[in-house]
Amino acid sequence: MRGEDDNLTPQRFSPKPLVMYLVVVGLVFGLIGGSAVTALSFRIPAGMPLLIDRSRCPVCSHPIRARDNVPVFAYLWLRGRCRDCSTSIPLRYPLIELAGGAIGVVAALYPVDGIDKVSCGLALLIGLTAALIDQRTFRIPNRLTYPSAILLLLLGVVNALSTGRWTSFVATVSLAIAVLAFFIVIRLVSRGGMGLGDAKLAAVLTLGLASLGIWSVALAILASFFAGSVVGVSLMVVKRSSLRTQMPFGPFLTLGFVVTALGAGIYHL
User: Fold this and answer.
1) Distance (Å, rounded) from C-alpha 225 to C-alpha 206?
2) Could you list the residue ranges that cross the membrane (predicted)?
3) Which of 214, 231, 262 lies closest to 111, judged by CA?
4) Which of 89, 138, 132, 110 is nearest to 212 (CA)?
5) C-alpha 241: how far from its chain's center?
6) Residue in 192, 99, 209, 219 with CA at minimum distance from that of residue 138
7) Which of 13, 12, 9 is nearest to 214 (CA)?
8) CA neighbor of 265 nearest in space, from 60, 74, 149, 120
9) Which of 2, 97, 100, 243 matches a 20 to 30 Å C-alpha distance to 129?
10) What is the dihedral of CA 65, 73, 106, 207, to 10 degrees?
11) Would you say 235 and 241 are in contact if contact means Cβ atoms under 8 Å apart?
């Protein structure tokens, strides 16, 4: 019987006959989540309402019909053009939706069950939203990270209430606080080289994926720094940047957690 001493030890993954079912479900919900990410990554920096207003064509301002919001398939059906004004729909929209689908598959393979799996998927979709915003604006807004942290904490409370694993919940929150403090220290040492938005995003991602334990979170953070270093050095080699060139870290942070979660899922298959 699993007790509270398990802390952050992951639950066993679902039986293998269910893997394909979980992957399909994860893909569908990931595509839907990718569509939401597309809207949020535009609305949050612009200060627009997040849930009330319907999506509109940025050229003709006509509300987008429900059938034209079906992820990826609507883009193919419309041949990449607005139904009302025939303006080309940017290719990045279906690509973001496909990225969301991929995240859904990663969450489906993530070797935990129940609410922990949902938290993983939500955290990675939040990370994708933050990466897109950071890449464009060089900042990760509190309007994204604060509500996301509250949502993941609530999911953690629900999980603890349903399973009785309060020690695991406390350990997860403690780990997220430790990660936040770690990134704040890096910011102080680098004299602003690391943004507070990056620190908050790292804590949010930790809340969603801490169920695999401290070392997995540490590996995800290490992978993000490694990816950022490789890209930074590569850009300097081709003379596209210098040591003083500003580079968003949100995309690399999200990538580190996605790769770690995927690796854990593949390992436990």
Assistant:
1) 15
2) 20-42, 91-109, 144-162, 168-189, 201-227, 247-267
3) 262
4) 110
5) 27
6) 192
7) 9
8) 120
9) 243
10) -10
11) yes
10-residue mean pLDDT profile of the chain (269 residues): values are 48 61 92 93 85 73 81 89 86 95 94 90 97 95 96 96 92 96 91 86 96 90 93 77 74 96 88
Taking a C-beta distance cutoff of 8 angstroms, is the pair 8, 213 a contact? yes
- Report the sign of the C-alpha dihedral through residues 197, 194, 106, 135, in that order: positive
**Can you tell me the distance from the alpha carbon of 118 to that of 29, in angstroms, rounded to the nearest whole number?**
10
Question: Concatenated DSSP letters for 124-146?
Answer: HHHHHHHHHHHHHHS---HHHHH
Alpha helices for 78-211 (secondary structure H): 92-109, 115-137, 142-163, 166-189, 196-209
pLDDT of residue 55: 76
**pLDDT (0 to 100) of residue 240:** 66
Q: CA 30, CA 183: separation in Å to the nearest integer?
A: 29
List, in sequence order, every residue forming a beta bridge with 81; answer none if it has no partner: 88
Residue length of the chain? 269
Give Cβ neighbours of residue 110 (< 8 Å, ≥ 6 apart): 116, 117, 120, 121, 209, 212, 261, 264, 265
Residue 156 near residue 172, CB atoms below 8 Å: yes
Scan for tokens 């193919």, then name that residue.
76
Contact 258, 104 (CB under 8 A): no
Spatial separation of the C-alpha atoms in residues 92 and 208, rounded to whole Å: 26
Q: Quote the tokens at residue 1.
A: 């019987």
Angle separating helix axes 142-163 and 166-189, nearest 10 degrees: 160
